[in-house]
Amino acid sequence: MRRRRDSSYNGIPRWVMAVAAVGALLVLLPLAAMLGRVNWAQFIPLVSSESSLTALGLSLRTAAASTVLCVLFGVPLALVLARGDFPGQRLLRSFVLLPLVLPPVVGGIALLYAFGRQGLLGQSLEIAGLQIAFTTTAVVLAQTFVALPFLVVSLEGALRSAGSRYEAVAATLGARPTTVLRRVTLPLVLPGLASGAVLSFARSLGEFGATLTFAGSLQGVTRTLPLEIYLQRETDADAAVALSLLLVIVAVVVVGLSYRGPAPAGSGGRTARPGTAGNHGRVAA
Amino acid sequence: MRPGLGPRLRPGLRAGAALAVGAVAAGLAGCAAPAGDAGDAGKTVTVFAAASLKAPFTALAEQFEAANPGTTVTLSFAGSSDLATQISQGAPADVFASADANTMARLGGAGLVEGPPRDFASNVLTIAVPPGNPASVASFADLARPSVRTVVCAAQVPCGAAAKVVEQDTGVTLKPVSEESSVTDVLGKVISGEADAGLVYVTDVKAARDRVQEVPFPESAQAVNTYPIAAVRTGKHTELAATFIEAVLGPDGQQLLRGAGFGTP
Description:
heterodimer; A: 285 residues; mainly alpha; MetI-like fold; 12 helices; B: 265 residues; alpha/beta; D-Maltodextrin-Binding Protein, domain 2; nine-stranded mixed beta sheet
């Protein structure tokens, strides 16, 4: 009972463990039940059918594109939110994080009113010859919309726990803000950025509601793997289960990657990460 | 790990936790209630009906409750396929009204249907266009014009299967911009103006009122969708289920269905 004296305290009350076990079961049991329903004899033909492979390919391509957009827009956003000091900052954060809690279908409706044919920007885009609805662009937009907060949250957390001491030193040595950002800040938070990017990718991969509402569903154009599963479920439960398992495997691999040690720190070059910076990365989202 | 959020959350944590526990408890209690009604036999009939039946069945349930004092009709609307899956997984349904014969046959094949299903309504496809008909769609063949953005149901769902039949009969091959997994999604794309035209059911157009315009086409008669209804074998209120089915097939039920745009079976 005197465990408190140990240098690293890890006494967990038994009842906490029991509740934790129930919590874990809540997640694991349905997945295990699904695994029990997989028609193994037909698994390979089911997941390698033309429509399945097309959907998987489209999902991987669009999720990759969305992740690039998330990094492109999410890094500046996270910097502004973590380091900036301006009125309305808290409000901006709330709005940027909104897609985390918004039902995706609401996101889809909002996107429709912005980029749809009758939407805010849609008419101007149409005149410019750009059509977004029912195209792969719409899928990428929907995925970016829902995945962006994951990157912003991860990176903002990394930025805050990293502090700004090194940047301050760099600045006193005459480095301009862009140089500080490039040679000090970004290398420091690279692991946080990497895990944020992986989470964004995973979220994009699973996107369903906003895509269905905003982009439609056409093989090879807008029908990503989750939409294909939703459709197959109507007639072929075996195919739906097989594809679900495929998506689970991809998701497990992707999420597993984000928690596998710090990302390669090569790109930092000579600036190298200060060794004492500690465990600034590994932001759990 | 989210320094920006952590401190702000903490003061409310205790209250939040209490609230969460309360909500879960209330939720569980709520879930338990319908099962507990089993002792109240003969008073409640649970009807699982295709989403397109929402308006007429809701009205019919009210009439039924008025005509049979002390009874309650619990309605659950969703896609026929979803409902059939729920029933085969043990959902407590007494009556199942499907939007297509195949789904009913699937449930019958699983031994979950009591007696032969009875057809009570029919529905045909029609073309829905946004108000003003921006793409000037006048016929089924117009839907194949490259400039017309047409949305249809995927072939896996009943409305898509019906569309395929019409395509084969007319020799017109559609090049849809999207194949949705439910007819409501097709209608949604037309209402929002994203699509120039959509193939939906007559009843959908009627329910959407002035948000869409209808362009009827004679070839739709090639693909009539019939709605069967049956009692569920695992249902607990067999007698009341039979009474409800009679009400659907009876003059009042049929009149409500006609009013919603359904045809005779």
